[in-house]
Design goal:
Blueprint: H1 2-36, E1 47-49, E2 51-53, E3 56-58, E4 65-71, E5 74-78, E6 83-87, E7 95-96, E8 101-105, H2 108-143, H3 149-181, E9 184-186, E10 191-196, E11 203-204, E12 209-215, E13 219-225, E14 238-243, E15 250-257, E16 268-274, E17 285-290, E18 299-304, E19 309-311, E20 314-321, E21 326-338, E22 341-346, E23 353-355, E24 368-370, H4 383-405
Parallel strand pairs: 1-24
Antiparallel strand pairs: 2-23, 3-18, 4-13, 4-17, 5-12, 6-8, 6-11, 7-10, 8-9, 10-12, 13-16, 14-15, 14-17, 15-16, 18-22, 19-20, 20-21, 21-22
Helix pairs in contact: 2-3
Length: 406
Amino acid sequence: MRTLFASRPRQGLFFASAAALRTVALLAGAGLLAACTPPAPPPEPVRAVKLLTVGAEPLLAAQEYAGEVRARVESRLGFRVGGKIVQRPAALGERVQAGQLLAQLDPQDYQLAAAAARAQVSAAQTQHDLAAAEFKRFAALKEQNFISGAELERREASLKAARATLEQARAQASAQGNQAGYTRLVADGAGVVTGIDAEPGQVVASGAPVVRIALDGPRDVVFAVPEDKVARLKEGQAVAVRSWAGGEPLQGRVREVAASADPVTRTFTVKVGIDAASAPPLGSTAYVAPEALGHAGVAALKLPTTALRQEGQATAVWVYEADKGTVRSQPVQVATADGNEAVIVGGLAPGMQVVSTGVHVLTPGQKVAVYQQKSAPAQVGKTPSATKTVANGAAAAAVPTASNAQ
């Protein structure tokens, strides 16, 4: 009995210790769970944004194209006969006059052919004279009735054939003489040599270009425009022309618009006539601004490129909602560029406020604050006093140190 009663207090103590251990374990687990739970995220900061008010402004930029100054008439001269070039006096960039020798073929074969043609003329002339003498003699015999009329007609026919042969020989001799003259290539008019396509010693065919000459006279500025602009260009329209090298601006007019596109560049060639007296040198670069393609002075909505962002396949901006203090995304349509600004043709209306910078860090519905430019106070008048205050403070701090040193 003693043993039984003595063991009961120990069993109660065991149960109390187990309950305490369970409590400690629960408290420790709760602490671990609290430590593993991530803290709540901090509230998103309110960003300050710069705003601009959308309004219609006049366009400044104009459509300008680069062109080349050319002569209105530029001839590619070549020989009218084939042969070997023996000399070429003309040089690139040289001024030539009408009739001046540009190149020379070997004329020996053509001279021999001309001599042969002249010999044929002599032979035909002899045959003609003989036929004429016989006809005269037979005509006298016919008057005396020594021959028949048929015989006289045969002699007359022989005379006509001899005359025709003589005329044919003379024509051939003239043609051969011309062929010999065609071995000399001369300038058709005064101008400047702009190209050389053959050199001495080269054998060229009839009609092959040898020398290019830009004839004196009117000048054109030749440039190319894309096919979406060519329909707006008409003959006679005014065009502003300026030289790349500087100088006074020129005024020209559209003289010719190509009827078909270039097969390589798919652009249309346009020629603008300018005054030859004030035209830049041949081959120089000139910039042309057709009035028909310009929009200078036309009012349009413009935004800086920093206000635009890409949203999928569309272009968008952030519009500020003043009543909520938030921003919302607004798709826009961009037509073209005007300098460093984009011309907007859809999506915005005058009076809207648009975020101009930092558009890539915003989200729809985000609260923002309007950035206010802070003006720095003038410090010019306070600088001497501040310097004096610092100096006095340093001197005051140095006095106790000196007394302590003593």
